[in-house]
């Protein structure tokens, strides 16, 4: 079955991978994006008659009302993503990540379906050795996490929605982000050959950007059985500390050196391990390992040299 799908923020890091997949599956896709990073990441989609693009802002309620009327499914990717960017622009983060999302949810008709990207950073600081499941209390410690948790509740309360608590994403994309942890550390390993770690024991989970696109496709095809619930989405064999991540990168780049800082601390205090059992029980399995992603990034960084590929 084909759907009319509205993807806000569809020209971003995830959207630049997801939108072509949706089109290849036969869906009609309209992308709303403000192109704040001056990207042309969907240029290769312009020839597809089922693709349309609107330059605009998700906070424009009149514009959104017109676009929503034509959509069977909404995938709200538009956001100021990540704690550093949200700290830098708190007003923009609040109006985009929370207010616009809540307005979008309120404007939907009951029969419209929503696939909502959230973040597993809502778990904040977990208990040592204890996996966070979807039943674990949410304790976000960043503005980004706080807004995402609030939006997830509103989406699930309305019904006809699926939310994904995404692990830290990695991998190459047409609208690249170097600031994400695996992408960042691999970039440093390729170009600087060293990194200094603050609080290197902090753990988190990881997932390839193409597997994030795959989980959206999976939910689109299994919506009835998955609706109304949140799902952790990550690699079950990649609940790694920053030091363990560096050791994995060093397997591919033996000259890479990583050191613990004798003083100082990481402003990002997230530290948790995550269970992905619920999403796996639906039949979804990631197809891209951490090793595959690191090898991919090494090749990608032979092409990318400058710092325009980040969010801050």
Helices, strands, pairings?
Layout: E1 4-8, H1 15-24, E2 28-33, E3 51-55, H2 61-68, E4 73-76, H3 83-88, H4 90-107, E5 113-117, E6 131-132, H5 143-158, E7 161-166, E8 168-170, H6 181-191, E9 194-197, E10 203-208, H7 209-221, H8 223-226, E11 230-233, E12 239-241, H9 242-252, E13 257-260, E14 273-274, H10 277-280, H11 290-300
Helix pairs in contact: 1-7, 2-4, 4-5, 6-9
Commentary on this structure:
With 312 residues, this protein is an alpha/beta fold. The chain has a domain at 4-169 and 208-233: NAD(P)-binding Rossmann-like Domain (Rossmann fold), CATH 3.40.50. The protein has 11 helices and 14 strands. The protein has helices spanning 15-24, 61-68, 83-88, 90-107, 143-158, 181-191, 209-221, 223-226, 242-252, 277-280, 290-300, and strands at 4-8, 28-33, 51-55, 73-76, 113-117, 131-132, 161-166, 168-170, 194-197, 203-208, 230-233, 239-241, 257-260, 273-274. The strands form 4 sheets. The chain has a 7-stranded parallel beta sheet with strand order 3-2-1-4-5-7-11, with helices on both faces. The protein has a 3-stranded mixed beta sheet with strand order 8-10-12. The radius of gyration is 19 Å and the shape is globular. It starts with a strand and ends in a 12-residue tail after the last helix. The model has no long low-confidence stretch (mean pLDDT 95).
């Amino acid at each position: 079955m084909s759907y009319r799908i509205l993807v806000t923020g569809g020209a971003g890091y995830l959207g630049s991978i997801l939108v072509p997949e949706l089109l290849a599956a036969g869906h009609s896709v309209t992308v709303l994006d403000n192109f704040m990073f001056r990207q042309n990441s969907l240029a290769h989609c312009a020839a597809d008659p089922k693709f349309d693009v609107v330059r605009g802002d998700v906070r424009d309620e009149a514009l959104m009302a017109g676009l929503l009327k034509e959509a069977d499914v909404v995938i709200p990717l538009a956001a100021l993503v990540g704690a550093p960017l949200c700290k830098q622009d708190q007003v923009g983060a609040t109006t985009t990540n929370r207010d616009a999302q809540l307005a979008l949810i309120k404007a939907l008709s009951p029969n419209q379906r929503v696939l909502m990207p959230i973040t597993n950073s809502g778990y904040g600081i977990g208990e040592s050795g204890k996996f966070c499941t979807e039943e674990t209390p949410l304790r976000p410690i960043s503005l980004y996490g706080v807004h995402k948790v609030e939006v997830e509740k509103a989406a699930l309360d309305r019904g006809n929605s699926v939310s994904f608590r995404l692990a830290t994403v990695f991998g190459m994309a047409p609208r690249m982000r170097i600031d994400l942890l695996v992408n960042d550390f691999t970039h440093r390993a390729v170009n600087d050959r060293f990194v200094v770690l603050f609080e290197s024991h902090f753990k988190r989970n990881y997932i390839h950007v193409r597997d994030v696109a795959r989980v959206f496709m999976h939910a689109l095809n299994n919506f009835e059985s998955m609706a109304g619930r949140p799902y952790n989405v990550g690699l079950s064999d990649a609940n790694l500390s920053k030091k363990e991540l560096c050791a994995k990168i060093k397997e591919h780049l033996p000259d890479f050196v990583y050191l613990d800082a004798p003083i100082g601390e990481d402003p990002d205090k997230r530290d948790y391990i995550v269970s992905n059992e619920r999403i796996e029980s639906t039949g979804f399995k990631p197809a891209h390992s951490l090793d595959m992603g690191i090898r991919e990034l090494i090749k990608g960084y032979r092409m990318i040299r400058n710092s325009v590929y980040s969010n801050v």
